[in-house]
Fold 3-phosphoshikimate 1-carboxyvinyltransferase.
Amino acid sequence: MSANILLSKPGKTANGTVNLTGSKSECNRALVIEALSNGKVKVQNVSDAADAVTLSKVLSYKLQVAGDTEEPTTHNTQLTTVNIGPAGTAMRFLTAYYTLQPEEVILTGSARMKQRPIGILVDALRELGAEIDYVENEGFPPIHIKGNLEQKTNSVSIKGSISSQYITALLLIAAKLPQGLDLHIDGDLTSRPYVEMTLAMLEQAGIKHNWEGNVISIAHQEFKETALPVEPDWSAASYWFSIAALADEAELFLTGLTAYSLQGDSVITEIMANFGITSQFKDGGVLLKKEAKPISKKLFDLKKCPDLAQTVIVVCAALGHEATFTGLETLKIKETDRVAALQNELAKMGVKLIEDNETYTLDCGGKFIPERMFIKTYDDHRMAMAFAPLALLIPELEIEDAQVVEKSYPAFWTDLEKVGFKVEAP
Ligand SMILES: O=C(O)C1=C[C@@H](OP(=O)(O)O)[C@@H](O)[C@H](O)C1
Ligand SMILES: C=C(OP(=O)(O)O)C(=O)O
């Protein structure tokens, strides 16, 4: 059980320095690469994100970790149960990873994880030769993985529009497959920068690839000895851009971020430039400043950066900027149905997010700023963090289940306190 908090911000300015934790996306790739490299690759700057801590525990000790179900552990020499809680990347990456291990596991997760589809990845792994069965519902975790994959083919096809994590999972194990892998991506590819991140990190670890048209090929090859550094998390940085956008005056220094990043979410600098936020890379970080500027951009395509959707939509709603958004198709299968969650919570300030044929438009006609607002978080860290900046406008903002932020950014509330937000019991 986790408690709610009451957030407020005396004064409408935001000044200070923030040290962000490592990217959970980079870290979880690095951890799997480290595990597959038999010690040749070492992860540097392991993230504090709970999803990374979970994966690190599973890979380093191969132990069952407790998820939110708190079921008793069942571990014997034949069958281990691994519970990754709400960690989507851990679920998908481990599904592929365990097909290569000389052990049998049941891979499970939180109640929500059991509703997040995995069938597309399981089908591709079965085609490669893996033995995987569903324990409860066809197409969803928990799954029973037999291990010791005997490769039947090096060529598989996978649908690209549901989650890029399936593709990353296959690419991460590709070099270990005796025949390598030719992965054909069918149709649209969503969240493309995450696939590019995977290939770039594999490259750093000595694994070459060839991407031609819709086929990514990785031959069987060895990892090289190297360190894999994890950059600070740009998705976490996005909430500081929101704060700058909603403050009257802001000067925020985010340490460790650089102009070139493997993370597609670094595009937040470009997105927020539309809201008058300048990003200056200097002194080992990025300095955000606020300039008064009329907002003209009306259409935001977030297909390459779905984790920024809540950040950008909440800022537009708070500023009464009636923008249109595309590329939100995958939001419905994330930690919660993020479209529904946004619609419910924005309605509390009179804003509508209207869905029309894969296009979403904000209607701010009825917008008002309440004296107090209660934000439900739906077990979704990004609901808590995307709405928190509203404390610059709303005198009392109660946020449900504050601990939910642990998934990617455990220090979020203490970092807010450092720049002058008040975080209290409601
Ligand atoms: O590969 C990754 O690290 C991620 C890919 C994205 O998921 P989808 O590919 O399912 O959109 C993103 O939303 C998630 O937070 C992290
Ligand atoms: C979608 C997310 O995570 P995952 O899919 O890894 O659970 C996220 O962090 O926004």
Notes: The CA atoms of residues 370 and 394 lie 6 Å apart.
